[in-house]
Amino acid sequence: AVWLCSLPLPAASQISGICNAFAKSRSLHRRGLIELSGTITCGTGRSSLAYIGYGCYCGLGGQGWPKDKTDWCCHKHDCCYDKAEQEGCDPKMQRYEWICEGNTVVCDKLTDRCEKMVCQCDQEAASCWGAASYNPNLIFWPNFLCGQNHPTCHFTPI
After folding, report:
1. pTM surpassing 0.70?
2. Domain segments of the chain: what residues?
3. What is the mean pLDDT of each run of 10 residues along the chain (158 residues)?
4. Which residues make up each annotated binding site for Ca(2+)?
């Protein structure tokens, strides 16, 4: 059922109620990148499609200076995935089990190091996005307006 939430925009909007209900229910997930999509919906109540091309860091790639708190959340998530890759994990393909309790991503029963790292990245990002304001004017923000200066990633030792 989660794959429905990743359909192109018109189809996703028709079933957004299903996606929101599914993500908010206390259900188990295990699917790779789909986890990120589900955790976004869990933490924010929005479809993950709302974050594709948002600002300078949400979606694929990233450059320049983040435009707002939501974009900073995306930058931090990119940094977290970079750190997971440096540790030998493949965060975009890593599958892990998690549940959504209320608007909180819970994955505290994981034992695999990479599963834990990637889930923690997605968990922290979902919480960050949930607390951040969302500016519809930043959807599909043109990369050339992001500039060349960019913040560095700061990692906390594990």
Report:
1. yes
2. 2-139
3. 36 41 39 83 96 94 94 97 96 95 95 97 98 97 93 75
4. 57, 59, 61, 78
